[in-house]
Amino acid sequence: MSTEAAEAPHPGVGPKGAAILETRAARKEFGGLVACSDIDFVVPERSIVSLIGPNGAGKTTFFNMLTGAYKPTAGEILFAGRDVGGLPPHRITKLGVGRTFQNIRLFQTMTSVENVLVGMHCRLKGGLIRSILRTPGVRREERDALARARELLRYCGLSERVDDEYSMNLSYGDQRRLEVARALGSEPTLLLLDEPTAGMNPQESADFTRFVSQLRDERGLTILLIEHDMKVVMGVSERITVLDHGEKIAEGSPAEIQANDRVIEAYLGSGAAGSAGAGSGATA
């Protein structure tokens, strides 16, 4: 099998409900520190799943294993049935996994459109020589990519006035949306969002919660998010997994997680079950 065939985008995902992502005893150690301890985890196709837990629980480390930033110490990470554990990030991105970051990582001195075009790079076919020669095919692809980048900015709720604005000059909420637009540029089937509503006010968080559901419903994406805002988590998730000290301590529906004594003790707090159920937006 050729390299291109082996890395064809969006491989063989199954019907809704089939696993698009699965980890089997996934483990990450840093010297003597176990950051993630033998985690079994499944994300069904076209679902919205949240990963929660207190600070230092291993959530971002787990995300970094899924996206290739960290190589697992042991275990398997399967995306659409293929073991991707240890593959570099650009290859995992090309297979169909996109992500945003807990701390915004935009190219600050590039425009909004340019940031999205960077996200689209893995789908462009121009190549070095054709790009240098500026062949008609390359020029056509660049025009199509630019139009697509602007369409993604509109879809993510960004107005035309920000297209040519440096990303460092955008408001915090717009920078968060630009990160999503850049991730969508890679044409993912699985989108990982790392604390996407951090720093947002309640109205912005509510708007973003609706947007996450829209991404799944309109674009058929599978969404996995790390989130501390319990109003967001309980409002958007179909399934929730809870980590504590690098171990999975609970998994289930929002109602099951709210009622789980171990989760309440480790993370939500004694009054959180009732307050989260009432939509208080409790955070941790």
Features:
single chain; 284 residues; alpha/beta; Rossmann fold; 2 domains; 6-stranded mixed sheet; 4-stranded antiparallel sheet; 12 helices; 10 strands; 22% strand; disordered N terminus; disordered C terminus
Q: What CATH architecture of the largest domain do you see?
A: 3-Layer(aba) Sandwich
CATH superfamily of the largest domain: P-loop containing nucleotide triphosphate hydrolases
Outline: globular
Helix content: 25-40%
CATH class of the largest domain: Alpha Beta
Radius of gyration from the CA trace? 19 Å
Report the total helices. 12
The largest beta-sheet arranges its strands as 6-7-8-3-9-10
Query: What class, by secondary structure content?
Result: alpha/beta
Overall description:
The protein is α/β, with parallel strands linked by helices and 284 residues long. It has 2 domains: 42-72 and 84-96 and 190-279, Rossmann fold, CATH 3.40.50; 106-187, no CATH class. It contains 12 helices and 10 strands. The strands form 2 sheets. Strands 6-7-8-3-9-10 form a 6-stranded mixed beta sheet, sandwiched between helices. Strands 2-1-4-5 form a 4-stranded antiparallel beta sheet, with helices on one face. A hairpin with a 2-residue loop joins strand 4 and strand 5. Helix 4 (112-119) crosses helix 6 (136-155), helix 4 (112-119) packs parallel to helix 7 and helix 6 (136-155) packs across helix 7 (172-185). The longest helix has 20 residues, at 136-155. The termini are far apart. Residues 1-15 and 270-284 have low confidence and may be disordered.
